[in-house]
Amino acid sequence: MAWIGGALVLAGATALVTGVLPAADAAATFDRAWPVLLFVVAITVVAQLAAEAGVFEVVAARLGVLARGRVFGLWLLTVLLAVVCTAFLSLDTTAVLLTPVVLALARVAGVAPAPFALTTVWLANTASLLLPVSNLTNLLALDRMNVRGAAGFVSLLGLPAVCATAATVGVLWLLHRRELRGRFRASPVPYVGDQTLFRICSSILLLLIPLLVVMPAPWVPACLAALALTATFALRRPEALQFGLIPWSLLLFAGGLFLVVGAVEASGLLDPIGRLSEHGTASVWAFAGAGAVGANLVNNLPGFLLLEPATTSPITLAALLIGVNAGPLVTPWASLATLLWHQRLVDDGVEFGWRRYVFVGAVAAPAIVAAATLTLSATS
């Protein structure tokens, strides 16, 4: 991703120097991008440090106790944890930090890891429709939706998001209903060495979650939480504060992508896409379908950035979000979260072939996108 990001930055800089991307358009792109990228950095630091303090492991172990030895109950609680983590801490956090925790929980319980692994990555994508902070695409769309913060976003996409999440859970259950039967022996909650650090991190997370919903600029509470956690770790565990906490590759990739898409938009190459908005209600389905196809062809973020200029209303923009958020379940590169998830599986020694992933995703993605789009059409 760093190499691709570097190439994108070079291409964007070339477009700026040659005049393909006017300076005014580049400045407008920067004004739009910096709050989003700052949020990504802050929430990544928060999630990494919270994991370092043992917060996710303790939560997962407590869910195992709450399941009372039932595999189906453990799976339902995993669904709940994946949805909450995705909604408030973003899909990439779920893919990177929750996946190994869920796999460890399945291993200790002695149950098949495949249903829990697929549940994590699918919900990391489809549940990212729930809140603006759940996905980078949502944050990018928020300023064009003409809605007031998270409340306005939820009023428009809340029901489709719930529908997409419910449809995902339903498909997952149909696929793995036999493996989710039976009982297991719950493992004890792991001991956390630095209880003070654990309590401080847990308190900051609990305070951050509602602030991300109610504050109009989510980067503000995310940055405050990141600074508070950094200061806490500087006092109690300074060795955890490493250069790698910052997602440099993602920043380079996203920054270069903003520049390149800005250049493409300024050149007029995207003008024909505007015809998608000329067909009334059908355009909602057109944007949802185009978003899903685009995400699986070139990745959800560039797919969104390329199609977004053609949207003409909050409804068509919401339909595009459904496509690029709930649709990237087929190809491995459809979302960064999927690639990060698979790398975690490899690191953990869990085999999950891409052929199987593509097959089940090709069946599930159209149904999930259609269910959410139908809800959007009916409620709008």
Protein architecture, described:
By secondary structure, the chain is mostly helical. The protein has one domain. It has 16 helices and no strands. The longest helix is centred in the N-terminal third of the chain and has 30 residues, at 23-52.
Features:
380 residues, mainly alpha, globular, transport, transmembrane helix, cell membrane
Q: Helix and strand succession?
A: HHHHHHHHHHHHHHHH
Q: Rough shape? A: globular
Q: Mean pLDDT across all residues, rounded?
A: 85
Largest sheet: none
Topology:
Blueprint: H1 2-18, H2 23-52, H3 55-66, H4 71-89, H5 91-109, H6 113-126, H7 136-142, H8 149-176, H9 195-214, H10 219-236, H11 248-267, H12 281-298, H13 300-307, H14 314-326, H15 336-347, H16 354-379
Pfam families: CitMHS
Organism: Gordonia cholesterolivorans
Transmembrane segments: 36-59, 71-89, 121-141, 153-175, 243-264, 284-307, 319-342, 354-376
Brief synopsis:
The protein is mostly helical and 380 residues long. Helix content is 74%, strand content 0%.
